[in-house]
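User: Hey, quick favor. My workstation is busy. Could you predict this chain's structure for me?
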Amino acid sequence: MGVGGHINPVDGAADPLEAGLRREIEEEVVVEGAGGGPGWEATPVGILNDDATAVGAVHFGLVYRVRVAGEVRVRETDALEGAFTPRAEVLRLLREERPRFETWSALLLDRVGEL
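Assistant: No problem, here it is.
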């Protein structure tokens, strides 16, 4: 669920968080905005920390809400797939099939009403 990744040395711009966010979005999806703009706007909404898993214990997440204007499609179609899904359907899947979700995705979905 969503787009994510790490801040990398290549993101050493004046604002590495902004540069990393932009790079990760552009690596994973194509957002075709109107007028040639980026077609998306990100707003920070929180942090995510979960020491219950080995991966979570060595990672710390910054959570953004991204609003898009225009067409969105997955860039790496050989490895990934994606679609926008109504909130009610995603929450139903979370209730019925929680083990299928990555830990961070499930934790975020638990709080989706607050975002």
